[in-house]
Recover the amino acids of this structure.
């Protein structure tokens, strides 16, 4: 069982991640709808104290601050974080890995391949 | 006859010779004047602007150049070196001036180039200029002709902007549709896990998933087709057997509900081809089609490989046991977009991408019946891909 922090600008995907991850007994312990909000919650701790997540699910194209920019800041301040990029933008893959993310999953994914990718990381 | 007549005869002959010589000189002068007049008429009336520059001064300009530049003849003839330089856009000045000086010094310089010319009213026009080293009044000079290509340049710029805009829209559309598809696919997959969902309703959920995936596949193919036209897509040395192995792995993940058996024996040595990175998408698309159009849960695909005759191509055969393709459709499979047509025939573009990629690297793709003469017993997609050796020699189909 692992804990996840979800960063994605689509509200419907937050719900779906929760349902999908709960199937395998994982927990979602925090969420953000853009990179800036993610930084506030995980680095600046402006709103609530978020316990250390095992993984951060990071979308790339988001308003205010995108996934790559957010990852660069997050890993500077909290290098222990494990960030998994989940994005429909495949062109971001190389940059995401170079920025220090531990994996890249392309949307749309099916559940089995998503779990399979998570298994490799867990 | 007596010898005292000889000098008189010689004199007459000499006089005749001189008269003929004078006549020839007059005719030659007449011809020279005709040529000179014709040249002056051509220069004066040419629709191309013509300039002659000598000792870094303008010594000749035709009417077309006067009209093009907005400067009068007297203004042009009184141009200083700085004035000549100032008539070229600052961004182009360095290279144009350097070429002019090189040409005047008899050194190598390009004979034609495009630059921005600043007119008298400070407006700018794009010109294409042809320059040559000439002898003008017995001294070295440069003759330059100018054609206004501003409209052409504007059209090129507009085309580039339109293309960039189309690519941006494609990118945004593709990304957002894929994001939406994620919502559809994940929702459907969660629904399928619900034990209360009746079996007879599950097929509708599966249909939704497959349609969402098909939309994503279509977007992916359109994006790749648009990428293929770009000059930064380079050919690489690729191990074709690796491409096939990776593709097989991907297909298993894409169709988790199907039992797919690939009969493929990895070759003993590498099968190196020279192709761009989209060859993996081409192979994926062939295999996706082979699985997708087979309604059975258990799917078998045979992948054969060898060399062609003559021995400069790798030959791959992808044989499926699906419904096959009627003879009248075989040629049309790969051409979803017909030139001159405003409609796209069929959808999904997967095999169009295959053809573009394979043809682009000098190969060939076509489809036959798996069992000759029996289209209903499955297809045999045949791929011929050019071999490459370490020497980098690239063979194209049809060449020896």
């Amino acid at each position: 069982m692992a804990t996840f922090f979800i960063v994605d600008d689509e509200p419907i995907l937050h719900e779906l991640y929760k349902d999908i991850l709960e199937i395998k007994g994982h927990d979602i312990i925090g969420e953000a709808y853009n990179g800036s909000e993610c930084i506030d919650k995980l680095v600046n701790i402006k709103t609530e104290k978020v316990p250390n997540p095992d993984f951060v699910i990071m979308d790339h194209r988001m308003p205010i601050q995108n996934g790559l920019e957010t990852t660069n800041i997050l890993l500077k301040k909290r290098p222990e974080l494990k960030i998994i990029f989940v994005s429909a933008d495949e062109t971001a893959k190389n940059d995401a890995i170079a920025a220090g993310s531990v994996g890249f999953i392309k949307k749309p994914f099916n559940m089995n391949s998503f779990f399979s990718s998570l298994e490799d990381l867990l | 006859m007596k010898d005292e007549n000889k000098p008189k005869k010689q004199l007459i002959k000499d006089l005749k010779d001189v008269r003929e010589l004078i006549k020839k000189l007059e005719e030659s002068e007449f011809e020279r004047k005709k040529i000179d007049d014709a040249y002056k008429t051509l220069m004066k009336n040419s629709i191309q602007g013509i300039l002659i520059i000598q000792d870094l001064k303008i010594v000749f300009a035709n009417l077309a150049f006067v009209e093009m530049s907005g400067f009068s003849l007297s203004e042009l003839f009184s141009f200083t070196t700085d004035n000549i330089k100032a008539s070229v856009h600052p961004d182009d000045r360095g290279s144009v001036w350097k070429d002019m000086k090189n040409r005047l010094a008899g050194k190598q310089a390009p004979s034609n180039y495009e630059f921005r010319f600043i007119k008298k009213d400070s407006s700018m026009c794009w010109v294409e200029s042809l320059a040559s080293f000439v002898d003008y009044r017995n001294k070295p000079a440069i003759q330059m002709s100018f054609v206004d290509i501003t409209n052409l340049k504007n059209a090129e710029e507009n085309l580039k902007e339109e293309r960039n805009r189309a690519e941006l829209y494609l990118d945004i559309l593709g990304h957002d549709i894929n994001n939406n598809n994620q919502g559809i696919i994940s929702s459907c997959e969660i629904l399928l896990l619900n034990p209360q969902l009746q079996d007879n309703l599950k097929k509708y959920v599966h249909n939704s998933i497959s349609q969402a995936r098909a939309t994503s596949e279509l977007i992916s193919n359109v994006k790749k087709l648009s990428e293929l036209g770009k000059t930064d897509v380079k050919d690489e040395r690729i191990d074709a057997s690796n491409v096939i192995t990776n593709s097989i792995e991907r297909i298993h993940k894409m169709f988790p509900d199907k039992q797919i058996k690939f009969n493929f024996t990895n070759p003993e040595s590498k099968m190196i081809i020279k192709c761009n990175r989209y060859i993996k998408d081409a192979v994926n698309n062939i295999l996706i089609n082979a699985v997708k159009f087979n309604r059975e849960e258990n799917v078998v695909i045979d992948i054969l490989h060898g060399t062609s005759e003559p021995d400069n191509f790798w030959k791959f055969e992808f044989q499926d046991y699906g419904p096959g393709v009627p003879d009248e459709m075989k040629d049309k499979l790969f051409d979803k977009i017909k030139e001159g047509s405003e409609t796209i025939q069929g959808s999904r573009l997967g095999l169009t991408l295959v053809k573009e990629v394979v043809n682009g690297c000098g190969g060939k793709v076509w489809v036959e019946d798996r069992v000759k003469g029996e289209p209903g017993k499955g297809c045999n997609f045949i791929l011929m891909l050019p071999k490459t050796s370490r020497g980098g020699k690239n063979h194209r189909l049809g060449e020896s």
